[in-house]
């Protein structure tokens, strides 16, 4: 049986995405009720931005489908090529931790430079993971 250790960071990222999705849902419904916004008035992204002032969770939810797409693929590549050792696993968990930090900042106080630092660090870890996997295939 193949080593499935690299799949646990994927489950963690999926859990983070679920948590942000639930927060987005609760915030949107709450804002719509408080502001008495009819659902049809937020039928498009443009309408949503015009009607609802707090888009932090929605913005973060979209972010979770940008760089993390490459992360999920890296985990599949690592698993299929047998590169599930401590370096790959550590980089994978570091990416998850940095994305969780990014989401926490984004969905709460949203200080851009703090959020950017977490984003940039997570991106660097992701590119290191891809470099490590490429190096492993070349060996």
TrEMBL record:
Keyword Membrane: yes
Any Pfam family: MAPEG
GO cellular component: membrane
Chief location of this protein within or outside the cell: membrane
High-level lineage: Bacteria, Pseudomonadati, Pseudomonadota, Gammaproteobacteria, Lysobacterales
Keywords linked to the UniProt accession: Membrane, Transmembrane, Transmembrane helix
Chain ranges passing through the membrane: 6-26, 69-96, 116-138
Cell compartment(s), UniProt: Membrane
Signal peptide: none
The protein, known as: MAPEG family protein
């Amino acid at each position: 049986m193949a080593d499935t250790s690299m799949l646990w960071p994927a489950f963690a990222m999926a859990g983070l995405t679920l948590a942000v999705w639930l927060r987005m849902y609760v915030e949107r419904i709450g804002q719509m009720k408080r502001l008495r916004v009819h659902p049809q008035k937020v039928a498009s992204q443009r309408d949503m931005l015009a009607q609802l002032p707090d888009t932090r969770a929605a913005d973060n939810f979209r972010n979770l489908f940008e760089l993390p797409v490459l992360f999920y693929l890296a985990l599949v590549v690592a698993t299929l090529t047998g590169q599930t050792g401590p370096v790959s696993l550590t980089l994978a968990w570091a990416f998850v931790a940095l994305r969780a930090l990014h989401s926490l900042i984004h969905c709460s106080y949203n200080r851009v430079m703090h959020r950017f630092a977490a984003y940039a660090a997570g991106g660097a870890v992701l590119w290191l993971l891809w470099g490590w996997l490429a190096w492993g295939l070349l060996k």
